[in-house]
Specification:
This protein has helices at 11-20, 59-76, 80-86, 93-99, 117-130, 132-152, 155-167, 283-314, 326-354, 360-384, 396-408, 413-425; strands at 108-109, 112-113, 172-175, 191-195, 198-209, 216-223, 229-235, 241-245, 257-268, 316-317, 320-321. The protein has 441 residues and is an alpha+beta fold. It binds flavin-adenine dinucleotide.
Length: 441
Amino acid sequence: MNPSKKHQDGDGADKKARSSYFHLPALDVPLAFPQATSATSKFPPCESDYYQLDDLLTLEEQAIRMKVREFVEKEVAPIMAGYWEKAEFPFHVIPKLGVLNIAGGTIKGYGCPGLSITGAAIALAEIARVDASLSSSILVHSSLAMLTIATSGSEAQKQKYLPSLAQLTTMASWALTEPNHGSDASALSTAATKVEGGWILEGQKRWIGNSTFADVLVVMARNTTTKKINAFIVKKDAPGLTATKIENKIGLRMLQNGDILFKKVFVPDEDRLPGFNSFQDTNIPLSVARVMVAWQTIGISIGVYDMCYRYLMERKQFGAPLAAFQITQQKLAQMLGNIQAMNLVGWRLCRMCENGKMSLGQASLGKAWVSARARETVALGRELLGGNGIVTDFLVGKAFCDFEPFHTGEGSYDINNLIAAREITGFASFKPTSSAQQSRL
Ligand SMILES: Cc1cc2nc3c(=O)[nH]c(=O)nc-3n(C[C@H](O)[C@H](O)[C@H](O)COP(=O)(O)OP(=O)(O)OC[C@H]3O[C@@H](n4cnc5c(N)ncnc54)[C@H](O)[C@@H]3O)c2cc1C
């Protein structure tokens, strides 16, 4: 997963960036005026499982939850604010994360863990509780790129690519969105033209997570003969491929999002995914990813609640802990209530998905509704911490900023509601048309 020379931040820049990790501010040094314990010096314990979600999980899912929680609290919490500030990716954490055996999530075989949907979702939520960028990097890698290879790839492709992706010794990204096609990704225009022995890709992608360093990119492009969408595995060193890091993000700053240019990129026949023949073939990875994203937003909310709870107990104003005032208690209770409801909806979505009962609309409604509750929860948390609510060391300010991309990504809040509404009414309202022209599905 070393950044390739083809990529704009190049080998030299990457080495420099990696060496500079050791010169990041020492994050375990106490703040001059601490006021309360920061999340980087000691991550707050989990206090939010009020309705005992664990009772709804299998023993294996409970074990995954604890294993991932311990790992991220120990390895990621102390460094997250420094990497976030610098907008750099913590490459050194990835091999350790690989040992946890969660990459590949629900995929069975090929070295993948074969977790339940719930287990995979809980793992991502636990990472997001501490850091949403790292969780998003694994989501793109596992639930989008690896799952697309698993569902649409040939046996040879699965054997070739999945084992090292499962170990996180290689990393993947998933490229659907384009500069001119975000919400209307089905109209994407990156072209795939058949030539002798393979395909030529020409076009642009935007926002692609992990793309500045990923070893393989799963790329959706329009077949110029059939006009349908196909998917291709593109290797990072492919001539004509350039990925440029998107700078100056206000959220998910550790996640490396790239703008990708394909200039006559040759992809051999063996790297076209044979089972991916139309845009409908994004349905499985996108539905699963929406469930996972819903859980990421639950994880973010839980981390924020846990931080707020400890902060309110520790910090005093007017001679009493902040936790003793009615208005702060009301906000805390509202946050806790949201989290219980989000847990239950998220859990139900997972179980429906596991039983093959979840529709695209149900996944979309789940992502939209859960993330709306999470947005409210995170905003309440930011208020509760006062000035420290905008300091990354206290987690909540970082989580507040990290949350915004979740409102938009994996289908925006609006689009996911429209997908659910299309399913329940039969009317697709995405394109502005007069009601007389609206098509019933
Ligand atoms: C941090 C981050 C990571 C991402 N990672 C990836 C990735 O790894 N791979 C990938 O392929 N993509 C990725 N994306 C892209 C993401 O999926 C898109 O941002 C998303 O689909 C929205 O597209 P857009 O940003 O172009 O917004 P637009 O489509 O331009 O939408 C702008 C606004 O208009 C609204 N809107 C659009 N159409 C309609 C309509 N018909 N009716 C009502 N409202 C509408 C939207 O809801 C939104 O509020 C990522 C995005 C972000 C921010």
